[in-house]
Amino acid sequence: MKKQDISCFECNIRYCSILKNCERKFLELIDKSKFCMTYGKGQIVIRQGSQIDGVYFISSGVAKVFVSGYRGRPLIVGLARAGSVLDHTTDELGKQQISVTTVEETSVCFIESKDYESICKESSGVREDLTKVYQRELNQMHARMVHLAQLNVREKTSEALLHIASAYLLEQSTEPFEVNLSRQDIGDLIGITKEQVSKNLADLKHEKVISVKGKTLQINDYKKLQDIVGL
Amino acid sequence: MKKQDISCFECNIRYCSILKNCERKFLELIDKSKFCMTYGKGQIVIRQGSQIDGVYFISSGVAKVFVSGYRGRPLIVGLARAGSVLDHTTDELGKQQISVTTVEETSVCFIESKDYESICKESSGVREDLTKVYQRELNQMHARMVHLAQLNVREKTSEALLHIASAYLLEQSTEPFEVNLSRQDIGDLIGITKEQVSKNLADLKHEKVISVKGKTLQINDYKKLQDIVGL
DNA sequence: CGGGTTATTGAGGGGCGTCAACAACCGTGG
DNA sequence: CCACGGTTGTTGACGCCCCTCAATAACCCG
């Protein structure tokens, strides 16, 4: 983990993050109080149970956000990518309720809660965007709950692939891309075993829906994947 | 559904809802712009896809909050009870993303989004509580996702019972109480079939953990249920 | 190149969904 | 009040999906 400050005004996610409508004077405040860090792949950004209270912005890279589950298995509740914000992730006592580890090299910015809250209080731009983020997050979580509850493993595998693609690629690109997630990780995204992931990826490969070679993945047929997931 | 206004100042949930720290002048505003309604059991409060944009407060009763799922099965994402708030339940276009139907006779208050937002903007008390509500909600959803993903049906049944009890009872009361949820509903709370609910309730009954007679349910041993759920 | 992790594939078995038959319950109308 | 049809709940048989375990292969890093 190395520290390297970038100006908020030149940040690549300035216009796609939750701060896109942040007024200039507040962005200046954030710029002064923030910490920027870059983590190598596989490093811990947040550890569940720790007491750091604040907000993290992901400015590049991909990280897995997970909670500890049963019998030693985590559940990956989502993949964070450039533009994602990790907010309100603590309980009432300020203890982190999630863990975050990087999958790629990723850069994050951190603002302490008190600084962030004072800005939220003042800035209607930030507040409105925050509201929308919540709305989307809530609806996404509901969708994922349905997937976890009702899909079979083939459908779950397809769902996981779509989730991964949306974290790694813009739109529905059919470009090959390198994924540093293990089969176990993919399984933990959707609550199935690594063996089932292997088998179902093999199936989808034979059906030419995807191509897999080593860690590179390529999605040839988004429509088919969406059809499998259904709804 | 019948309309019947109650003053916010005399409302039974005034001090346990999200408005508990709402300043007097804002509560006056809410009091003027709100609509109070009482629904009989089994009535629709919100229909997924409808365009009503605003916030609902539950002042009494119990309602199921659900999203449509696969193969005609809904997933009940939670039970709302007195003090619950249904907020940010629409997508960007203002379409409701959840359905809510009453299980008991329940009273709700409704405030239009624009009124609500102007109050959020002004009232730091409301805003802070809202933040905490989000925090809790998010963490609860994560917990439920883990349950959906990783528990077996016996554990899921126990989890559902704890969920129901917390919606119907104060603390961990061992009083019998009447539940108007069908076995199917209980199954839809946690993604299992009604038959499995039946079987597992019978098991728990034989183990004296619960008592069931008709629609009345009694939880004798909370600790045991929590042990079964584990973690 | 070699040891350790990760991926693949198959065999086996059990958990749980599906189906079906029957019982209990509920509101309605005779 | 009982009759009765419709809904809901209970229980069992069956079978398949998917988890577990294991053996082998592929990969990765020093």
Describe the structure in your own words.
The structure is a homodimer of 231-residue chains. Chain A has helices at 24-33, 113-122, 124-150, 153-168, 183-190, 194-206, 222-229; strands at 2-3, 35-39, 44-46, 54-60, 62-68, 74-81, 85-86, 99-102, 106-112, 176-178, 210-213, 216-219. The first copy, chain A, is of the alpha+beta class. The N and C termini of chain A lie far apart (42 Å). The mean pLDDT of chain A is 92. Chains A and B meet through helix 2 and helix 3 of A and helix 2 and helix 3 of B. Chain A binds a DNA duplex (30 and 30 nucleotides) through helix 6.
Key phrases:
homodimer; four-stranded antiparallel beta sheet; 40% helix; 231 residues; 24% strand; alpha+beta
What topology does this entry show?
Two copies of one chain form a homodimer.
Chain A: E1 2-3, H1 24-33, E2 35-39, E3 44-46, E4 54-60, E5 62-68, E6 74-81, E7 85-86, E8 99-102, E9 106-112, H2 113-122, H3 124-150, H4 153-168, E10 176-178, H5 183-190, H6 194-206, E11 210-213, E12 216-219, H7 222-229
Antiparallel strand pairs in A: 1-2, 2-9, 3-8, 4-7, 4-9, 5-6, 5-8, 10-12, 11-12
Helix pairs in contact in A: 1-2, 4-5, 4-7, 5-6
The structure holds a DNA duplex (30 and 30 nucleotides).
